[in-house]
Amino acid sequence: MGIQPLADDALLGYSDRLSVAPGEPIRFFVSSPAPEYDVSLVRLVHGDPNPSGPGFKEELVPSAIDGRHAGRVQPLRPGSHVLVPHAPELCPDGSFSIAVWLCPTTPRLGVQGLVTKLDAGRGWGALLDPAGAALRIDAWEGVTGVPLVPWEWYLLVCTMDAASGTVRLVQRPARRLVGSGVELEQRCQAVPTATSTPLVLAGCWNGDHVTGHYNGRLETPRLWDRALSAAEVDALFTDGPLPADAVAEWDFSLDIPTDRVTDVSGHEQHGRTVNMAMRGVTGRRWTGAEQDWRRAPSEYGAIHFHDDDLSDAGWTPDLELHVAELPSGVYAARIRAGEAEDHLPFFVCPPSGTATAEIAFLAPTLSYLAYANEHFSWSPTFAMWAPGNVLERLSWRDHAMQRGHLLSLYDFHTDGSGTCYSSYLRPLLSLRPRYSMPLISAPHQFNADLHLLDWMETQGFERDIITDHGLHAQGVDLLSRYRVVVTGSHPEYWTAAMLDALQAYLDGGGRVMYLGGNGFWWVTSIHPDSPHVIEIRRGLAGSRPWTSRPGEVHHAGTGEFGGQWRYRGRPPQRLVGVGFTAQGSDSSRPYLRLPESYDPRAAFIFEGVGEADLIGDSGIVMGAAGGAEIDRADRKLGTPAHALVVARATGYTDMYQAQQDDTLMHDAKTGGSVSPLVRADMVFFETPAGGAVFAPGSISWCGSLSSNGYANNVSQITGNVLRRFASAEPFAMPETVPDDTPAIPEPADASGR
Asked: Model confidence at 2, in pLDDT bands (50, 70, 90)?
């Protein structure tokens, strides 16, 4: 298939949930340029078509949605805004005034709506024009003629005095360094035509949807049914007293964790945000004295809007499946029209409150959402880290993600700000079988985890599938049904409730096989008012694609401090013994056994593995078992003193760089060829209640399970550990806790020397 545009010419869709239990429904939303398309329910077994591995595997599963269905194109309409339902009071029939504080981020990018009630050229609206702030009354428009400066706050006041036929435009910067502002009077005999459309903040109504989206921040939009005086305009600028006669006054500092926009004028002209505009952001009053919006909400009275926000595509559902007694597994609605094909994956979990196996695979659905539609890693700012010409490895899906402005939590909005929300109510073009991440030329996240599930099936391990979303909602009760919990290849994004549950599970004797790299890293929240949305804030430190703006590290939905769990006292080493240390994209490395692998406590791990064998010297993720993103043990960060570091992968190139939290001073000694921090440590330790943890510390580990027809030492080690962990025999803590050993080298200083 060639390059396809995103919506008009592409066959694609999404589902209204990522997981379902028997007896529950799941709906699918499809956009098809063809008049008809075929649907089949399939079970996904192995999604990687790489000829050096087992190849693509799926199985047809008869279902009620099978067959031919009528097609239609359903467009994507991104852009965040506020909708206020129509009310006659919002339609002035004479004099009126509009006032709003704005901080534009792309002021030259076309005409953008600020506060509007327009319909097909009728009505009124305060707008942002490339030539300055503007007022539109039906077909008449006035513009200040002074362009606005990006990321600067301005007061905009537009008044219409019907008696004199005079329009006044005031565009006044908050900082005099930006300029002296402009005040413009013009003659205008037009009176706005009353419309029945919604009032829109940060956009313009266009038939049945919003266009003309605004990029930037708005604060305290107000509307009066009279013309303000010059003294009242000055009072707006200085926050002086104003008469309490506004028709509407929207206070964005209220209801920050919700989609509600509250009118404090007393006239109940309340609204709702659409497409997850960013809240909990600093406004024009922010002093820097408080970093938490909950402690100083008046300083966070702004909302940041983007023209490419998309939290709900809003398509009409086409298919509904009531899941019968399907075994727990990975399934998809496969849609086809001619040569076009898409899969809409979902997980079937065991019936509510039950387990059907001793082993659970924890599908990292939060991490899937964080990376969904990611195209930052092959953008010009990051392409230097991709070996070869990454652009030659792009699929039509990659181009569609970029052209359609479908964003991951790694990508940037049109105005250059980082994306902090991701949702599953939209096409997730990278959460697909057959998809390979261009950066590493191999499956990543969802499709990489099918490597592990396929291996479990071929080796005869019965397992249930549970998800991050289920763990967040049900806590340790969900995990306690299983003897072993196995993670995917990259469980990076975790909520506090999830971490608490996994810690409680381990404290209670549970066994965890963390078969990935860079896990348990980013503070993540499921938005309480929009549960299909997850939120992050990147914080101000560490390896990250973008940095939070000052004062904006706290999540809007929950108020909690964001960034890395490490800075909230919960580094991954405290939970699973290893934590993120480096990443690279050129090649993976094999492991070698260390002296602690011969400790009797670790004997079961290496049954059938030779003493001098290279562990994982082949694989379908960059050629070996230790790579992409790798973890190390570190006593200072919480690796238990009795933990055994049984194997290690080293010898990385300088494309692998030690992650920034561990390298306070940048120099030439942070690369894989010189830094002792750039290594993948394989760790095992027991817990006091009879449980244990095994962690090889690498994203690439599961990509080596199928090498040589599954007959390899990565498969052998993983099988040894899983069989022992799934047994009823408890583990015992060692009687003595050793002092720190040379097995975990500590650099002499923070730069790794």
From this structure: very low
